[in-house]
Amino acid sequence: MPRYLSLVRVQENTIDMADADPGFEARMGALFEEITKAGVMLDTAGLRPTAESSRLTWSDGKVSVTDGPFTETKEVVGGYALLQCKDRAEAMEWSRRFLAVHPPHWTVGLEVREVEEMPGA
User: Fold this and answer.
1) Cα(116)–Cα(95) distance, integer angstroms
2) Are 99 and 110 in contact (CB under 8 A)?
């Protein structure tokens, strides 16, 4: 069964958990319980701020390192979910449901990509 990586895209420093509506955490918990019981959710987590991260780049045969925060970047990956679904349509439906539990005044995006499986793995 194919796996899909859902990358949560946010504008860093624009989402404040204190700004969430009172039912947000309960809605998210219920969705996570449902998706886990369905055997779809393999792993998920939020990511620490870019101020605590580094970017490594390979160019001209050398590795360069840039420490965050990355002020030139509007959107960053704020979290991820690894899903195992029967097809892309199912991955998209779970992703739509994930977005729908968020407060309406937040802007959150998802990039859903199928994991390329290695032959023989």
Assistant:
1) 19
2) yes
